[in-house]
Amino acid sequence: MKRSLMALAVAATVASAHAAVERIEVTERMPFAPGVTFGEYGAYEKIRGVAYYALDPKAAANASIVDLKRAPRDKKGRVLFSSEFVLLRPTGAQPTTLLYDVNNRGNIAILGQVNGHSPAQNDPGSAADAGDGFLMRHGFSLLFSAWTWDVAPTVSAAGTPPSRPLVFAPPIAKGVKGKVQNEFTVNTPADIVSYAGMRGLTYEPATPNDPHAQLTQRARQGDKRQQIPRSAWKFVAPELKGGPGRVQLEGGFQPDTIYEITYVAKDPYITGAGLAGIRDLLSYFRDHPFEGAPAPRNVLMFGISQSGRLIGRMMHDGLNVDEGGKLVFNGAYLQVPGAGGSAGFNSRFAQPTRHPSMMEEHDYPADAFPFTSTPTRDPASGKTASTLDKARDKQGNLPKLFYANTSTEFWNRGASLIGTTPDGERDVAPADNVRIYGFMGAQHYVGRSNKRAPFSACVSTSDHYLPMRALIVALDEWTVKGTPPPASAYPSLADGTLTTVADYRAIFPRGLGITPPEQNLREPRLNFGLRFASQGIADTVPPKHGDDYETRVPTPDADGNDRGGVRLVELQAPLGTHTGWNLRAPETGFAWATSRFDGSFVPFARTETERVASGDPRPSLEVRYANRDAYAAAVRAAAERQVAAGLLLKEDVERTLNKNLGLYDRILARDPADQGCGYLFPNSAPSAPVPG
Fold this sequence. Notes:
The chain is α+β, with helices and mostly antiparallel strands. Among the domains are: 286 residues, Rossmann fold (3-Layer(aba) Sandwich); 90 residues. A hairpin with a 6-residue loop joins β15 and β16. α14 runs antiparallel to α15. It is globular, with a radius of gyration of 25 Å. It starts with a helix and ends in a 23-residue tail after the last helix. The relative contact order is 0.11.
C-alpha cells in the first residue's frame, strides 16, 4: 500500500567526500506484482524516490560535462539538481545484482523486451508488468532514473491513465546563445509540423518568431539547400495547442523533401548532468545499504538503442568512474547501439532524442571517430584512438562490455564501424573486456506489425529478445564469477561475411518481390568548428562535411539471409528471407530510402509448383522439410546449438519451438494469392518500436 511522503522521506548523508548524491527521498513504497513470488528471490517491491545531486564543477571527474561551469551554484560552489528514480527489488534482505536500465526517451524498455510479453509501462506495478518474471527469477534488482529533458508529454488513449515518463530538469547555462539546426521530413502533407527530434522537444528561438531564422528544402542530403522565403513560414507560438517546436508553411510541407530550420536559441540545458546523475546514483547504491537491503553483489548497466549509445558516451567521457575514482558499474550491455556513443548526449544545445537516419538528422552530432574498443588510426585525420581511452586513463580496470546489433543497424546505424577501421578496409578485434554480437536477420526491435505500411515489405519475424536474455545472464556471470561469456560473433571482412552494398545487391537473389536499397547509412564526418571536439560547442551550424566513414553490410547467402554473426534459430531453420532493411512505401516519400528500424520478411513458397509459378529461386518448404515434424526437429536442433553456444537458455527452447511452429502453420494455411502481412502476427496490432 502506498504510504505518505512524510512517513517515508529519508535523508541519507553521504560519508564519502567524493560522492555527489546528497540525499535520497523515498516518495512511494509498495508491493510489485502483488501475490507473485519469483523463485528463490520471492516477492518484489517497488520504491519510487528522488535523488538530490551536488556536483563540483572544479572536480576533475566532472571536467567532461559540457557547460557545467556555467550552471548556477549554491553557496558551496556546487551545481544542484535532482531526478526521480524507480527501484524494483526483492523484499527479502539478500544481495542481488543491481541492473540499471537506461530509459529510452523517458520510457522503460527492458521489461517489455526481456521479460516476455510485458506491456509498455513506465510505472510498473502489476503482475502483467512483470511479464514472465525472467529478470526477477534470475536475481536482478532493477533501477531506472530520469536523465534527459527533451521528451514530449505522452498522450494517452481515451480512458487510459496518463503515462509517467522519467524526465528531469537539468541545470541551465543561463545567458548563453548559439545557433541550432533541425532537419525533419513528413510522411503526408501538413501545414504545421514539429521540427523536434523523435517524440521529443527542442529549443525555441531566442527571439520569438526569429525574423533571421532560415528554412530550407532539398530532395537528398547531398543536394544544394534551397531557401524558402521567410515571409512564407513562421514559428508556431509554443503556448498554443500542440506545444513547442513547431513551424507553419504556406502551401504546406510535402513528402519526399528534407526540410532544415536554423535559428539562434538561448539558455542550453546542461545535458551531461544527466549522465553524471546516472553515474552518481549507481555509485550511491553500490556503496550504501538502502531501506533495509544490503549493498548489491554486482552492478550492471543495460541500454537499448539511444540508451545503449548513452552508455557508450559515458565511457567515452570517463563518466563511468565516480568523483572518488571508483568504477560505478562492473559491466554493461549495449543493445542495438549501432556505431556506439554520441556527442549529442553531452554538448551545448544537445537534444538527446535526435539521431541520424537515411534522410533525417544527418547533420546532428551523433557518431564520430573513434568507434572501436581497441585503438585504430583514422586515415582522414591521422589520429589514433579508441572508445575506451579516457576510461583506461582513469582506472586500472575496465567494465566488461557487450555490444549487440541486429542486421538493421548495419544498414541504418553504421554498426560495422565498431569492428573495422574507419575506411572499412580492415577488421579491428575488440578489446579483451569487450564482446561483439550481430543478430543476423533481425531488425532493430522484434516486429509485431501485421501491415506493410508505411514500408514496401512485411517486417521481419525473427526474435532476438531470447538471445538477449541469455547474454544478460552471461554478463552477470562474467562480472561476478569470471565465467567466460560466448565468444564474439559478428560479420567480418576476413571471412567474407561483411561486404559493400554493391556486392550485396549483386549477390541478393532476384524474384523475391523486394529489391535491396541503393545504399546504407554512411556515417558522415561533420565539422562543427574548432571548439566542438574539446568543449562540445558548435561554432559551425550547419556543419561542414568531410568524406563519409565507410560502412559495410552483412553478406547474404543464396536465400538472401545474412551470413556470419549470431545465427538465430530463424536463420538456421528458415521459413523465408529475413533482411535488415525495408524500403519506404512510395506514398510516404523517399522510396529509395530504408526504414529507420525495420527489416523485411519474404516467406518461401510452400510447394515447388508454387515456387516455379512465382519465379522464386529459393527452394520451397516442401523441399526443405518433409513435414511439420521434420521442421520441428530442425528448429529444436538449432535451438540446442544456441544453448550449447551460450546464446539461448534451456528455459527458452520450448518457447522458441512453439513460436516458429506457429509461423510454419500460418504460412502453410495462407492463401498464396494473399500478399498481406496479417498471417505473420495475427493477434497483434501494428506496434511502435523502441526508437533509435
